[in-house]
Amino acid sequence: MDSDFNMSMRKFLKQVGVTSQQAIEEAMRDAGSAAAGKTFDAKVVLTIDGLDMQHVVTGKIKGPAA
After folding, report:
1. Burial class of residue 41 (count of CB atoms within 10 Å of its CB; 0-12, 13-18, 19+)
2. DSSP-assigned beta bridge partners for residue 62
3. How far apart (Å, rounded) are the C-alpha atoms in residues 8 and 66?
4. Distances from the Cα of 54 to the Cαs of 17, 23, 25, 50, in angstroms?
5. Could you report the per-residue pLDDT of 5-58, keeping only the tens digit for each?
6. What is the chain's alpha carbon radius of gyration, rounded to the nearest angstrom?
């Protein structure tokens, strides 16, 4: 793969990572004590318009300590 492709992909993935972390942290803050110590199922679905592609990542996120 060429360097322009690699750079654009890395830039996109960095944006996904940073903005997703911010959104999760905000949701945990908004939930307050209701999220404390609980484990939440999480899922990310990545699609690309124009390509027959869907990538699903699942995992668990533990809420902050009480």
Report:
1. exposed
2. 39
3. 40
4. 18, 22, 26, 11
5. 999 999 999 999 999 999 999 999 999 999 999 999 999 999 999 999 999 999
6. 16
Domains in the chain: boundaries: 3-62
State the Cα–Cα distance between residues 8 and 6, nearest whole angstrom: 6
pLDDT single digits (tens) 43-59: 999 999 999 999 999 99
Q: How far apart are CA 6 and CA 27, in angstroms?
A: 31
Q: pTM here?
A: 0.87
**Amino acid residing at 46:** L
32 touches 59 (CB < 8 A):
no
Residue ranges with strand state E in 1-66: 39-47, 54-62
